[in-house]
Amino acid sequence: MPTELRIVSDDPVDRDGPYLVAPEELERLLPDEPSFRVDQLREWLYDKPVTTTEGMVNLPVALRERLDDNLWPFEVEQVQEADGGRTRKWLFRMPDGPAIEAVLMGYRTRTTLCISSQAGCALGCTFCATGQFGFERNLLAGEIVAQVQWAEASLRNQPMRNSPDHVTNIVYMGMGEPLANYRQVRESLRRLIEVKGMGARRITVSTVGVVPGMRRLADEPWQVGLAVSLHAAEDTLRSSLIPLNDRHPLEEVEEAAQYFFDTTGRRVSIEWTLMDGVNDTDEQADLLAPVARRLDAHINLIPMNPTPLTEDRPSSDDRVEAFRDRLLALGANATVRTIRGQSIDGACGQLRAATDGRTGLTSSR
Ligand code: SAH
Ligand code: SF4
């Protein structure tokens, strides 16, 4: 019997462009130019990004025109703002079809950019919109870095009121599971830290518990932060929310988090999305507190944001507070994360390119 195979590639497509070649190999794109031109271009790309080549004022016009076509590895299909202009979300469309999102949040002393590492996600956590809509492909390192540089260029053109004029912090908490795209994510970290000059401590990678990736990241030479999305402190419940838990159960995830702390000296943080009647019970708090204490980890409580394909609802405000207070009383460190960007589907777990006309999906709000 012939079986129908649906082939979904997890390999990034092979494309060229200023952000897609390694910063050390830029001369490949400019074979006829003197090396100082290559250095000038590298500066525009990594030190002071501009939205169009027109801004690259020290480059000859002919060269700028040549670079014009594919300066960015995506098209900016949509920009949305919320929270009085202090949250900005971009929808980037790749030439081969997939769309990804990045969200910038301005605060008084920092601007935090939440970036995507994959188009979609294969891990299928029940509560997460990205997971609900499947996996398209891994992003290339250059596609990850370009999200940061686009946000930075945009901030230069249009700063946020009472916030720094550049991206000060980066979190890999957008679409996708970064540690399931290890090679490209590692290369994006290298470019951000060693070429752009971002402080590693200002970058946080979030994982739902890809244990081999957590261990590899611990062994890298940079002190990036690691956030572990735990959401349940007991295997049966955790597996019902996070299919990956069957492969890497809680004990293994905790051991890998401990290894990360021991190796890097950086405490991990624990992410906990609160769902009404599911993981906001006293019992779960009692199981979570000792894990957090052992790891000396800070717990970020995230009131669940509604997503289309789950029955689960956000916990009530009272329940969120009671859960936090119980953790504090048990000697764990916990705070409730303020919600940003919910009105534009830009909040945690809502990213799924809701405006994608091709899929016929409409935003849930
Ligand atoms: N795949 C990685 C990083 C992307 S998700 C991970 O899961 O950690 C970023 C964070 O958003 C995770 O902590 C995730 O659990 C959380 N999240 C997912 N869906 C959510 C929802 N509906 N409401 C609130 N947070 C959610
Ligand atoms: Fe993937 Fe993270 Fe969403 Fe789970 S929560 S489906 S790992 S993006």
CATH level 1 name of the largest domain:
Alpha Beta
Uncertain regions spanning at least 5 consecutive residues: 1-7, 355-365
- What pattern of helices and strands is seen along the backbone? HHEEEEEHEHEHEHEHHEHEHE
Distance between the termini: 45 Å
Structure, explained:
This protein folds into 2 domains: 23-68, no CATH class; 75-355, Aldolase class I (TIM Barrel). The chain contains 10 helices and 12 strands. It is elongated, with a radius of gyration of 21 Å. With 365 residues, it is of the alpha/beta class. The structure holds S-adenosyl-L-homocysteine and iron/sulfur cluster. The site of iron/sulfur cluster (SF4) has 10 residues, from helix 3.
Give me some keywords for this one:
alpha/beta; 2 domains; two-stranded antiparallel sheet; 10 helices; 18% strand; elongated; disordered N terminus; disordered C terminus; binds S-adenosyl-L-homocysteine; binds iron/sulfur cluster
